[in-house]
């Protein structure tokens, strides 16, 4: 009898131990803090060839004079943008950088849904890429209410936020001190998705059918000391 | 004998159960993802009285015509800045907002260590608060290398990062579409602390003792299409 009891106790102990190990493993897996993608890029970026980023699956020899195979802040930024597989929502004050324009056009040619929201005044300055995007068929809307639509953010696939001080210009990338945050943290991504949607709907041209220049009058009188 | 065994088994079972509960509780406590402070503020901000934020412990009656007791993006921003208890590192392109200047001066009067890094050209424009801060004794350095020192970030107590598209100007706060991220996520805060330290040391006036205007010549020739 006592031998049987001993066997039962040992058996129960083994079962309890294995269940405990299972439980601890499950808890560790479920409760371990997940690493959210968070990256900060600083500019000006070093200059390097970025041609290979546009066609990583079929790399071609490039004979441009820039260094090759060098990872820079700008190449990281380009990779983030080009990672879009379904959508890119872009909300940017000034857009004149031709490499970034090429990235947006590349995504568009791949069937990615692109929405661009920009400042009305800066959409028309010399060197802007907004006209190039429009001609390609990309949907662009201009802010009609504020003094400046001064955002510089984009959201990739409703998942990845790219935001900071960097306008999409050549000077910003190559010459200015700038920062860009790249994050998948939902606490940060969600408000930007919501804000984009709000601004996109608010600046629907159908809401302003009879105005050729719906910018408020106070924009022209903004003191120059308060440049954006 | 069998009764003794039963008692022993039940006793062991109770001990094992209580230990398991303890272990599960400990694991839950240790492994639960910690809530990192993450907040996004959008501008333009509604206008509201902010006087009570500067002296929360001794609120005084205010008869200004603005709405009172209203929480806005700007009041949230002010509270974040005024939460500094030991240091405020500020790296901003344009600084002309008098309420934000008041906040920095308030912190300085409380003994908080303030370091301000700004763009050389924008430090001298009409309406700038940089001269006011300098006169008060706050240490200000100007960027000497880049075309524009275009950052708009600050770090409170080496712990809280405030960054975005918002320059510290009246127009940015009241009239522009802008965003500000407030975060304690170390993955985001640490790179900005490091970048500030790098820029602060790099722009030490002692490194440029003989130059009255050490800005690079190319700054003046930057094409206007690439405004920051």
UniProtKB/TrEMBL annotation, chains A, B:
<keyword id="KW-0812">Transmembrane</keyword>
<dbReference type="InterPro" id="IPR051406">
    <property type="entry name" value="PLD_domain"/>
</dbReference>
<dbReference type="GO" id="GO:0034587">
    <property type="term" value="P:piRNA processing"/>
</dbReference>
<dbReference type="GO" id="GO:0051321">
    <property type="term" value="P:meiotic cell cycle"/>
</dbReference>
<dbReference type="InterPro" id="IPR001736">
    <property type="entry name" value="PLipase_D/transphosphatidylase"/>
</dbReference>
<dbReference type="InterPro" id="IPR025202">
    <property type="entry name" value="PLD-like_dom"/>
</dbReference>
<dbReference type="Pfam" id="PF13091">
    <property type="entry name" value="PLDc_2"/>
</dbReference>
<feature type="transmembrane region" description="Helical">
    <location>
        <begin position="6"/>
        <end position="28"/>
    </location>
</feature>
<protein>
    <recommendedName>
        <fullName>Mitochondrial cardiolipin hydrolase</fullName>
    </recommendedName>
</protein>
<feature type="region of interest" description="Disordered">
    <location>
        <begin position="209"/>
        <end position="228"/>
    </location>
</feature>
<keyword id="KW-0443">Lipid metabolism</keyword>
<keyword id="KW-1133">Transmembrane helix</keyword>
<keyword id="KW-0469">Meiosis</keyword>
<keyword id="KW-0472">Membrane</keyword>
<dbReference type="GO" id="GO:0016042">
    <property type="term" value="P:lipid catabolic process"/>
</dbReference>
<feature type="domain" description="PLD phosphodiesterase">
    <location>
        <begin position="145"/>
        <end position="172"/>
    </location>
</feature>
<comment type="similarity">
    <text>Belongs to the phospholipase D family. MitoPLD/Zucchini subfamily.</text>
</comment>
<keyword id="KW-0442">Lipid degradation</keyword>
<dbReference type="GO" id="GO:0016891">
    <property type="term" value="F:RNA endonuclease activity producing 5'-phosphomonoesters, hydrolytic mechanism"/>
</dbReference>
<keyword id="KW-0378">Hydrolase</keyword>
<dbReference type="GO" id="GO:0005739">
    <property type="term" value="C:mitochondrion"/>
</dbReference>
């Amino acid at each position: 009898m006592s031998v049987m009891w001993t066997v039962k106790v040992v058996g129960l102990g083994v079962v309890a131990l294995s269940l405990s190990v299972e439980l601890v493993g499950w808890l560790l897996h479920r409760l371990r803090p997940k690493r959210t993608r968070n990256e900060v890029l600083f500019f000006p970026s070093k200059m390097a060839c970025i041609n290979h980023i546009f066609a990583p699956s079929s790399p071609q020899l490039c004979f441009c004079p820039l260094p090759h195979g060098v990872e820079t802040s700008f190449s990281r930024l380009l990779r983030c943008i080009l990672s879009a597989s379904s959508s890119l929502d872009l909300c940017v004050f000034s857009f004149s950088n031709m490499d970034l324009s090429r990235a947006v056009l590349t995504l568009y040619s791949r069937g990615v849904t692109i929405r661009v929201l920009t400042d009305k005044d800066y959409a028309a300055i010399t060197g802007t890429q907004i006209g190039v995007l429009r001609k390609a068929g990309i949907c662009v809307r201009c802010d009609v209410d504020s003094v400046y639509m001064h955002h510089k953010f984009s959201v990739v696939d409703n998942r990845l936020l790219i935001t900071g001080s960097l306008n999409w210009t050549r000077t910003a990338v190559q010459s200015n001190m700038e920062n860009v945050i790249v994050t998948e943290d939902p606490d940060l991504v969600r408000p930007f998705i919501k804000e984009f949607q709000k601004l996109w709907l608010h600046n629907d041209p159908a809401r302003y059918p009879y105005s050729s220049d719906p910018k408020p009058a106070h924009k022209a009188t903004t003191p120059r000391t308060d440049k954006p």
